[in-house]
Structure formats: C-alpha cells, structure tokens
Amino acid sequence: MADPETQLELRQISRSFDRRRVVDELSLTLNAGEVTCLLGPSGCGKSTTLRIAAGVDQQDAGAVYVAGGCVSDATHHLPPEKRGIGLMFQDFALFPHLDVAQNVGFGLTGDKNVKAARVRRMLERVGMQKFASAYPHQLSGGEQQRVALARALAPSPKVLLMDEPFSGLDNRLRDAVRDSTLDMLREEGTAVLLVTHEPEEAMRMADQIALMRRGRIVQVGAPYNIYHAPVDRKAAEFFSDVN
Ligand code: ADP
Ligand code: MG
C-alpha cells in the first residue's frame, strides 16, 4: 500500500454462501478521483463484493484497505460508519420520516452551524437547495437520487460505493442523472466503485472498468481498451450491444 493515490484496495477477497464461492480471491484497487465500474452479469458477485468493501458483509479471506489503512482482515473488522466511505445502495434509501436537509445532514458530526452550512452547500451542488424542507415522497426519482448523492458525499468520504444507483430511474431521466452525478464526483475528487450489469453504463461512467465473471475479475482497463480488446469471446459478446 505504498501508492498514496490508492483509496480502496480489495486484496484477495473470498466469500462463500452455503459452500459456494461467490467471490473468489478478488483483488481490485481504486485511485483518487477515478470512477471504477464493477461490471458483470447478474449473480456474478458484484453486490457481495461491494458489501464486503462497505463492511456490511464480511469476507472469509482477504483484506480491505481504505486510504492505506486496513479496515478488515482476519483479525479485525471496522463497521461501515468507521471506514470513511459513502454508500449509495438501494437498501440505503432516503429516510422517509426526515426532510431533505435532515437526510443530507444525517451522517455529519460536530458543530451545528458548520453542519448546516455543509448541508446547504451539498444541496446547492446537486441543485436541490429549494427542496431542503421537502420530504422524500414529495420528490421525483431523479430528485431523490440527487439528494442521496448529496447525503453520501456530505461527510467527504474518500471512497463512494454505489450499487446499481440508476436502475430505478426511467430511461429519459437516467442519462441526465448519470451526467450530473459524474460532474459532482469529479468536483469532489472521490474514488468511486460503481456496480452495474449494463455495459453501456460502464462505458459512459467509468475511468476504469473491472469486468467480473463468476466471482472473479477477468479484465481491468479503460473503457476504450476493454471494448476494443476484450479478453475473450465472452467479454466481446457482453459488449456486443453497446454502440
Ligand atoms: P450480483 O450483484 O452480481 O447480481 P450478488 O453478489 O448479489 O450478485 O450474488 C452473487 C451470488 O451469491 C448469487 O448467486 C446470490 O444468490 C448469492 N448470494 C448473495 N448473497 C447471499 C446470501 N446472503 N446468502 C446466500 N446466497 C447469497
Ligand atoms: Mg447486485
């Protein structure tokens, strides 16, 4: 872990359920300011990998490092809130009983005025300042997504983990939300691990694609390289619908 650019490192992670190995000695590194898409077909182990990185699940073997520090290995395991990471998972939706500002401020600690200023700033950045006192059910899917992004980034995490974050949005909205999300991530300089089963999404969002199959990463590279030089026939077929 000598490289200061490395914000997240998964080192030889394995995880089995009912003696079936769904993540198989997987290694991956994320650099500051880069979006890495973990891309692969449904059931290949993407969400399990992300949950292990987050600390909501625990690997059977291997270790997780955040910004050079070990957050989980055979002997110790930091809980999600102590890892310096932000999460955008479907099961981490906005709290329905809290308004937008309270949602964004939820993970913040410290001085009340400093917190309020940070919430305001994050809402401005996602263009949701007018909705500070609205409740989640009063917002559209795209608006909820922007608030969720503001909430995830409010504590300035070194790493943001996103599991199929755009899958709930209709096609019309999706491109716009993807683009504004990318802008925001670039400004914040956060290292992002984004899980998706859609090659097109990975091509659009990623600086680096990690192609996953049956618990393993079979190829890592820039979108252009993966698209034009797929590692094998299966990888080529997976990208064949992208144009
Ligand atoms: P993906 O996100 O790529 O679709 P998952 O990581 O969700 O894949 O799942 C990989 C495999 O592990 C699937 O076969 C799934 O059924 C299985 N799996 C995931 N979580 C559990 C669990 N808690 N208990 C048993 N099997 C699980
Ligand atoms: Mg999944």
From TrEMBL:
This is Spermidine/putrescine ABC transporter ATPase. It comes from the Bacteria. Keywords: ATP-binding, Cell inner membrane, Cell membrane, Ion transport, Iron, Iron transport, Membrane, Nucleotide-binding, Translocase, Transport. Residues 8-239 form the ABC transporter domain.
